[in-house]
């Protein structure tokens, strides 16, 4: 059976500028080369096809089922050098084997598994037998090795002998890395081409609309779910709803009450609490409110600043986030000056069963004069029990207490001295006597979290169910303590205190119990990733290597994942015990996002569905300001300039270099998080609706810049740069692919057919006023659903080193042993079937998509209006200024300083090299006079 090259699968609007499908013995042949071991003497050559488009490079290894897609933006460094003697020898030997195999096929012999396919297709091979190639009259052309180091762990080496093809590859790489603006990224052109294709499809569908309406009633009877599925999901194929898959209103309404369809009470009353309508396990919406930073507070002045500066004072935060209701805007504005980057504590998750909250922030600025305001915000997070007076908004005119006595005094003592400034009533203990002091909350918190070492972990597939939820909530309310999960090592936090930062300590934070989890910062993760990348590149092939596990241990990649998981487990246990938890690191956008997202993944089965996981990443990473552009290495100037408030910036502990330009630090933080999710998935494979294929896909997409989801450094920047309007969200394609897989239209890839949907729905249905055995949700009252005790479906993975593994399917995906042990008769099975989790569960997941489509339609007019404003004269001046600047080109592009850009001759010890001022490439003394490549192509 003759092998063939895989087909090129193109995106919408993607066109091929050049493609090569030649056999290995042709002049324009291309092959992949792999070096086995540390030395580059032993190598493997695999013939492949090659295609170059405007977005990415398609590499099709011979005999493989699919091409390797390498987006140009995902390439960190690249270089071209002459092939070594070992590569030339191996390439020549493969050519000779191909000639001999082709001769046997032409003579009528049976083709072996190593037979080389002809130029175009298998049909052409049957029509014209392959003949032995004629020897070149001129000398054998020189071989070149094109090395493509991706921002992921993989490294691709292409052997090219055609200089014409080599120049084309070089031109595509050069032009891509000369992108100077955010608007020049491929995500914008991909979205434009997709819109054009969508318009063409809509025109064709309009002609067939009448026929579809006639057949609609018959099709609804056979569709999965309820009879309205076909109509309700029609908008998802034309709307880019992925941008609205996360909505703060929808997400927190689901968390805060049993039945979000019931109207929320503005103020908690004694009658409603005693009647069982509101409270823990029922409805907590009266105690929380969404803070909109875009609202103007015209009547509020503080230090000469208007309250409408909240949005510009914290540009890395979402415009809407959750806080307790008695934290007003004045208090929030003052607290911003006491946190690094103005990232005040914001609620990410509320445990409805116990009333405890999971919050996130950056480190406190311990030298700030507004530390008392930050202490008030932190104390508002403490699970003090949900009494009616806790829901009252804080009076703006009441002074703030900053003394230790006012912080810890009981309620009765507060009413005695009128001259002493007092805190709001919700911040005091309800105990009649003040017995116990401050040690009881501290010990209660320690017993609640117990640390990751003493925690007992259930076996894989088990769940943690509380039989007495009321007792757990009362225990958390008695503790009166806030667990602070500081992701940093304690010495690092203490060192930051010398620079103005620090952690929650001192008289203002007596109610806080701080635990340090020793998670490395971005530099430690980058160092571990470089070791992992070198290890993957070194151990190629199927030779016996004895040092792989030792090098894996020395890389510390799994050790850092272990500490992240330990922090997430401790936070989940804290919320289950009724103790609120505040997670932060230094700036609160790297390690904090990892830990809070993992904690929510462990606590809530909703986030373990595909649509829920998309919501989780969009919320904790994209919305809360994880710096995707900088961490993924595609930071580019835009048409807007976002700066923090001067008071916060001057107090920040981050140091910049003397040139005034901030240093851009790349680090695979999101890949690290994805690997941590995989470790949890591996222990509980039936508790997730998605497979590791979705995680691997996201780890690729974050570097490709083909979607706008991971472009820019925050929600505000994406909106102002037009990314949210003019690009496509990756969640749109993921959820569309998911629906097609469930309908049986394509093979299962993202959908986990082993998913235990019945168990998950039994817990998710509680939050919707439903019963797992009932046929429909409760309608008006909601009392029957609230009568039953609320249970949680919590995963507590074992974080022991023996349970953490190397993700072989991802990191060795491009390893040479896949070709050395290739057998064309062994194929991975593909499953295509209709998947349903039950009518109610399917309808619940589809309702999330419907809501996202509706919100996208409502948001579009405001985005269009904003684009008209930002595309005016101010944007034109900013673009002109950036175009004339010498640093307008991408600062992250790395140029090859080892080999000449024109003749590929390596620079020796005594060689002289010159860097072109136009294209920034290096040339030898023989090629220093040239026409710039950027002008030629």
Explain how this protein is built.
- The protein is of the alpha+beta class and 937 residues long.
- Strands 1, 2, 3, 4, 5, 6, 7 and 8 form an 8-stranded antiparallel β-sheet that branches. A 5-stranded mixed β-sheet has the order 13-14-17-15-16. It has a two-stranded antiparallel ribbon with strand order 9-12.
- A hairpin with a 6-residue loop joins β4 and β5.
- The longest helix has 32 residues.
- The two termini are 42 Å apart.
- The relative contact order is 0.12.
- The C terminus is likely disordered.
Task: Give a nutshell description of this structure.
InterPro entries: Myotubularin, Myotubularin-like_Pase_dom, Prot-tyrosine_phosphatase-like, Tyr_Pase_AS, Znf_FYVE_PHD. By secondary structure, the protein is an alpha+beta fold. It contains 36 helices and 19 strands.
């Amino acid at each position: 059976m003759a092998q063939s090259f895989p087909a090129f699968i193109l995106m919408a609007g993607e066109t091929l500028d050049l493609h090569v499908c030649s056999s290995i013995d042709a002049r324009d042949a291309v092959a992949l080369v792999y070096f086995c071991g540390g030395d580059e003497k032993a190598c493997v050559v695999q013939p492949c096809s090659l295609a170059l488009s405007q977005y990415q490079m398609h590499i099709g290894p011979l005999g493989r089922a699919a091409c390797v897609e390498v987006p140009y933006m995902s390439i960190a460094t690249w270089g071209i050098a002459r092939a070594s003697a070992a590569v030339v020898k191996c390439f020549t030997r493969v050519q000779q084997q191909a000639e001999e195999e082709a001769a046997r096929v032409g003579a009528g012999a049976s083709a072996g598994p190593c037979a080389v396919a002809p130029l175009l297709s298998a049909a052409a091979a049957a029509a014209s037998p392959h003949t032995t190639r004629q020897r070149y009259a001129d000398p054998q052309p020189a071989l070149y090795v094109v090395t493509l180091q991706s921002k992921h762990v993989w490294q691709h080496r292409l052997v090219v002998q055609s200089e014409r093809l080599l120049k084309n590859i070089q031109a595509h790489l050069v032009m891509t890395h000369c992108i100077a603006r955010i608007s020049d990224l491929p995500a914008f052109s991909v979205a434009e081409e997709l819109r054009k294709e969508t318009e063409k499809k809509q025109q064709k569908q309009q002609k067939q609309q009448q026929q579809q309406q006639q057949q609609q009633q018959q099709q609804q009877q056979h569709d999965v779910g309820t009879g309205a599925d076909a109509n309700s999901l029609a908008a998802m194929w034309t709307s880019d709803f992925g941008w609205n898959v996360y909505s703060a209103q929808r997400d927190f309404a689901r968390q805060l009450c049993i039945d979000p369809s019931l109207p929320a009470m503005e103020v908690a009353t004694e009658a409603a609490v005693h009647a069982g309508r509101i409270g823990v396990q029922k409805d907590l919406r009266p105690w929380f409110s969404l803070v909109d930073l875009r609202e103007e507070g015209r009547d509020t002045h503080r230090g000469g600043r208007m309250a409408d500066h909240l949005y510009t004072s914290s540009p890395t935060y979402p415009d809407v986030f959750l806080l307790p209701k008695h934290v007003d805007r004045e208090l929030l504005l003052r607290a911003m000056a006491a946190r690094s980057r103005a990232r005040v504590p914001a609620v990410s998750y509320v445990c409805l069963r116990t009333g405890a909250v999971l919050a996130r922030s950056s480190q406190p600025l311990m030298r700030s004069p507004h530390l008392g305001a930050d202490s008030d915000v932190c104390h508002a997070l403490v699970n003090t029990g949900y009494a009616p007076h806790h829901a009252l908004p804080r009076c703006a005119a009441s002074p703030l207490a900053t003394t230790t006595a006012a912080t810890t005094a009981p309620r009765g003592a507060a009413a005695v001295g009128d001259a002493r400034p007092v805190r709001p009533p919700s911040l005091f203990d309800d105990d009649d006597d003040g017995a116990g002091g401050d040690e009881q909350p501290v010990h209660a918190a320690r017993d609640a979290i117990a640390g990751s070492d003493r925690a007992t972990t259930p076996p894989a597939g088990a769940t943690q169910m509380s039989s007495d939820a009321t007792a757990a909530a009362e225990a958390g309310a008695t503790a009166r303590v806030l667990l602070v999960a500081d992701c940093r090592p304690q010495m690092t936090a203490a060192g930051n205190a010398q620079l103005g930062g620090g952690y929650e300590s001192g008289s203002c934070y007596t109610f806080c119990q701080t635990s340090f989890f020793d998670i490395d910062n971005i530099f430690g993760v980058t160092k571990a990733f470089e070791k992992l990348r070198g290890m993957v590149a070194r151990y190629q092939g199927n030779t016996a290597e004895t040092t792989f596990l030792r090098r894996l241990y020395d890389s510390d990649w799994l050790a850092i994942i272990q500490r992240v998981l330990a922090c997430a487990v401790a936070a989940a246990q804290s919320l289950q015990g009724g103790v609120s938890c505040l997670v932060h690191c230094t700036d609160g956008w790297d390690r904090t996002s990892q830990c809070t997202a993992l904690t929510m993944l462990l606590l809530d089965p909703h986030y373990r569905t595909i649509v829920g996981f998309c919501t989780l990443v969009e919320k904790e990473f994209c919305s809360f300001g994880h710096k995707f552009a900088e961490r993924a290495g595609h930071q580019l100037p835009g048409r807007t300039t976002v700066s923090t408030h001067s008071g916060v910036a001057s107090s920040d502990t981050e140091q910049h270099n003397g040139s005034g330009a901030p240093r851009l630090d790349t680090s695979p933080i999101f890949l690290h998080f994805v690997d941590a999710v995989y470790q949890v998935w591996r222990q509980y494979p039936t508790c997730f609706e998605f497979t590791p294929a979705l995680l691997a896909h996201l780890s690729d997409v974050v570097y490709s810049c083909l979607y706008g989801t991971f472009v820019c450094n925050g929600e505000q920047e994406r909106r102002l740069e037009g990314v949210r309007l003019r690009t496509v969200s990756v969640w749109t394609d993921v959820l569309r692919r998911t629906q097609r897989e469930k309908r049986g239209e394509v093979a299962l890839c993202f959908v986990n057919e082993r998913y235990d949907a019945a168990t998950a729905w039994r817990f998710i249905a509680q939050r919707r006023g439903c019963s797992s055995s009932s046929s429909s949700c409760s309608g008006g009252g909601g009392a029957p659903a609230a009568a039953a005790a609320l249970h949680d479906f919590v995963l507590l993975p074992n974080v022991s080193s023996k349970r953490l593994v190397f993700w072989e399917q991802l990191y060795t995906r491009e390893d040479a042993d896949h070709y050395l042990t290739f057998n064309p008769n062994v194929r991975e099975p593909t499953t295509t079937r209709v998947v349903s989790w039950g009518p109610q569960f399917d309808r619940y997941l589809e309702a999330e998509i419907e809501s996202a489509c509706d919100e996208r339609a409502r948001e579009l007019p405001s985005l269009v209006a904003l684009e008209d404003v930002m595309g005016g004269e101010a944007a034109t001046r900013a673009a002109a200024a950036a175009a004339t600047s010498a640093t307008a080109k991408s600062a992250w592009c790395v140029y090859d300083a080892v080999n000449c850009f024109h003749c590929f001759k390596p620079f020796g010890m005594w060689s002289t090299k010159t860097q072109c001022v136009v294209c920034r490439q290096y040339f030898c003394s023989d090629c220093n006079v040239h026409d710039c490549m950027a002008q030629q192509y």
